[in-house]
Amino acid sequence: MVKERARILVVGGGYVGMYTALRLQRRLKGELRRGEVDITVVTPDPYMTYQPFLPEAAAGAISPRHVVVPLRRVLHRCHVVIGEVTAVDHATRTATVTTLATAEEGGAAELLGYDELVLAPGSVSRVLPVPGLAEYGIGFKTVEEAIGLRNHVIEQMDIASSTRDPAVRDAALTFVFVGGGYAGVEALGELEDMARYTARYYHNVRPEDMKWILVEASDRILPEVGTELGRYTVTQLRRRNIQVLLETRLDSCADRVAVLSDGQRFPTRTVVWTAGVRPHPLLAATDLPLTAHGRLRCTARLAVDGVEHAWGAGDAAAVPDVTAAEPGTETAPTAQHALRQAEVLGDNIVHALRGEPLETYAHKYGGSVAALGLHKGVAQIYGRRLKGYPAWFMHRVYHLSRVPTFNRKARVLAEWTLAGLFKREIVSLGSLEHPRAEFELAAGGKPSPGPSDGPKGSS
């Protein structure tokens, strides 16, 4: 029995935010019905994105709407506020919140009070001061970016097919991906596979005309799957005529020319930046303890270290790994840990409200899976290495089991089944990014920049 009415504020609607609120909603069903507990989730988007499916969404294997989970449908007992927390004053138990209505009303940000705080804003792209990157780079963390990138790649093939200028054609068919982690390698593998298939429908664009380049600053890619599988991945990518440049950095992409640290220059209209993430800027606007890397300092019970009534997990939190042999090791910022941490976090808040002992988060990392395109992949699961089709199949099975809700599982499985029976879709819907352009032109106004003219739709 909860002792008094408790206001729980969950900041963020990603893995940790959604799953923590879902756990609280289930464990505190009676208290919520009696009005003894109030759960508020503040998130910039009304949905949770299942990021491991972004590469397949970009390749057209999964519909974009099935990569996201609508929060209002799942968290029907919570108050979902679409907005952003810009600051937290835990000493007074208040959070500063801006919503979509804030600007419309012309008012100031609201102060939202709470009793228990779950801080899970996630991470943002780690962008380095590379000349031209802000103007021409494309990120790969959101479903909008994934679909925009798919449209952009097909649009570049359209440009190459219709131009007589060899310089324009070469730049359109050169695709540079920066970052050899999951996001970069999987996005590159899926999109190259998609573009190779799409080329059969162009009379003057062949797969060998396209130039795919992966730039990685360290000496290996996919470190999560181990050294051996990392080397295997490099070999497989190179067999597909993908240039894998290790111990190389992007020095500039100004004027649509990718300049690398080894002196190579590639005129290109596509620079995809997946070179790591950093903690969300919100963490610096709180009075909570942070690590040297800017992450929330937490205990193994997922409470903020030395602070009562504050909790954290996922990308934004530095959580001790109690299963590691080496002291001081922290859990990796992966979906595998985030999903499990959210369950323990939700349970521990319930325990705290009821005056019960807290649980310790302990999970030994089970392994990693990565897809490299259709029927291609690598996986290391509990010490066993898989390559090719078995690894790709394991990748699909694992992520199908982890994607939230039966609704999404069924829809994704149906799409995979249909994709195996019919041909790929090769349509570019770039106009989705500027839906009013044609009407503005018809009305006599100046149309918005097209997908190839601005940093959002291209690079």
Automatic annotation (TrEMBL):
InterPro entries attached to this UniProt entry: FAD/NAD-bd_sf, FAD/NAD-binding_dom, NDH-2
Top-level lineage group: Bacteria
One Pfam family here: Pyr_redox_2
GO molecular function, one term: NADH dehydrogenase activity
Region annotation Disordered: where it falls in the sequence: 440-459
Residues passing through the membrane, by range: none
UniProt-listed SUPFAM superfamilies: FAD/NAD(P)-binding domain (SSF51905)
Residue span(s) of domain FAD/NAD(P)-binding: 7-340
Keywords in alphabetical order: FAD, Flavoprotein, NAD, Oxidoreductase
PANTHER family: NADH DEHYDROGENASE (PTHR43706), NADH DEHYDROGENASE-LIKE PROTEIN RV1812C (PTHR43706:SF45)
Family: Belongs to the NADH dehydrogenase family.
Name of this chain's protein: NADH dehydrogenase
